[in-house]
# Entry
Amino acid sequence: MPTPTLGLIGSGMIGGTLARLAVTAGLDVVLANSRDPHTLAGLVTELGGRARADTPAAAAEAGDLVVAAIPLKAYGRLPADVLAGKTVIDTTNYYPERDGHIGALDGDELTSSELVQRHLPGAHVVKAFNNLGFHQLFTLARPVGTSDRTALPIAGDDANAKQQATELLDVLGYDTVDIGTLADSWRSGPNTALYGFPYLGRPPTGLDADELQHWAAQSPGVPVSARRVKELAEAAVRGPAGASYS
Ligand SMILES: NC(=O)c1ccc[n+]([C@@H]2O[C@H](COP(=O)([O-])OP(=O)(O)OC[C@H]3O[C@@H](n4cnc5c(N)ncnc54)[C@H](OP(=O)(O)O)[C@@H]3O)[C@@H](O)[C@H]2O)c1
# Structure
């Protein structure tokens, strides 16, 4: 069987981290960003022979699975035609300060992943990797069977796509908890108890906001069990849509 290929549309903090985990796991990766693929030469060199850079459409075409790791404001530029029939893992979160206000999200009419799915009618979107920081995404990955393996939530409308996502998470170092449909995906989003903090652990006392941010960016994180993810998702209360940097 040929080596599976992960297409990454967006190769920044989250896309780059997923690429590192993927090549370590023996997958091939095709990276893309919003600019000329040559701008990813440094990352490709660091990742080694399993990685190459190309355009978003070419990354989408090459991927057995494709990850959208872009700011939400760019969702309309995902190549819908090429992604038809594919499973697309959506890592996005809604940050109005960065993405601009999106009425359907502000009014809780849609989740961010439903918005992405509407733009990709032929694809099968699965929300994943959105609820922990990129540094913890790297440090908490563990091989299958490890006692302190962390679980991540996924949400989606297509059972086969969720199965594919589960297999990807397993290969990259994570257990999976299915928290429902794309309409349910707010349960792992900003302003919920499952967003960020469980994976960070308890910060040292007495930090101001800047120090807390610095600590969060560097914390190796704490493992979170599947049981805990399930409890937090089930108990989630829908707060205001959208995260804030402050
Ligand atoms: N950072 C985290 O810890 C974290 C955790 C969970 C979820 N997320 C979410 O994941 C998404 C990505 O976050 P990030 O922190 O990885 O962002 P980032 O570091 O700013 O990287 C964004 C990437 O997306 C690319 N991009 C932007 N517009 C594009 C387009 N139209 N076509 C192709 N690529 C495009 C950028 O390319 P250029 O550099 O060429 O512009 C860059 O490679 C966001 O929605 C974020 O909210 C982030």
Observations:
- The pocket of NAP is lined by residues 9-15, 32-35, 56, 69-72, 74, 77, 91-93, 95, 130, 133-134 (CB under 6 Å).
